[in-house]
Design a protein that fits this description.
This is DUF2799 domain-containing protein. The chain is mainly alpha-helical. It has two domains: 74 residues, no CATH class; 72 residues, no CATH class. The protein is built from seven helices and no strands. It is elongated, with a radius of gyration of 23 Å. The chain starts with a helix and ends in a 23-residue tail after the last helix.
């Protein structure tokens, strides 16, 4: 269980503790990063965090192997759709073959997200198509201009 806590903290933070630098399973960390859609450049965060720790060198080859496995989870139509629907950006880390399907799935999710956001805005009790104070008028309590 302690190893899982170490790995989860390592995979979600940019700054690592000295213990995380020394005890991390870099393939598992890479898998986690790949599943999140992180690029190969993200490894630099680990290199910088562990630079001052004696005897701790992040293993780029193991990390990249894990990241490539994790990208298989990230580069799916379902994942693309979920990212769009939740309002997240889609990271350009997937292989080019099949990218059209991923972009289409992301666009559909993003469309749903935007529509839902706009509907929520319209349902707001403070909605005004002009915004408060635009054109010299807006919502005033009881219709008075004070």
């Amino acid at each position: 269980m302690a190893a899982m806590v170490t790995l989860s903290g390592c995979a979600t933070t940019q700054s690592l503790t000295p213990q995380q630098c020394q005890a991390s399973d870099w393939q598992q960390v890479g898998y986690s990063d790949g599943s999140r859609g992180r690029s190969g450049a993200y490894f630099g965060h680990y290199t910088n965090s562990c630079a001052s720790v004696v005897g701790a060198t992040p293993n780029r080859m193991l990390w990249e192997q894990g990241r490539q496995q994790g990208l298989k989870n990230y580069c799916t139509e379902l994942s693309a759709y979920k990212h769009g629907r939740e309002g997240y950006d889609w990271q350009p880390v997937c292989p080019l073959e099949g990218i059209d399907k991923l972009e289409e799935a992301y666009s559909q999710g993003r469309y749903y997200y935007i529509r839902q956001r706009d509907l929520d805005s319209l349902r707001s009790p403070y909605y005004s198509p002009f915004g408060y104070g635009r054109l010299g008028y807006g919502y005033r309590p009881f219709g008075y201009g004070w």
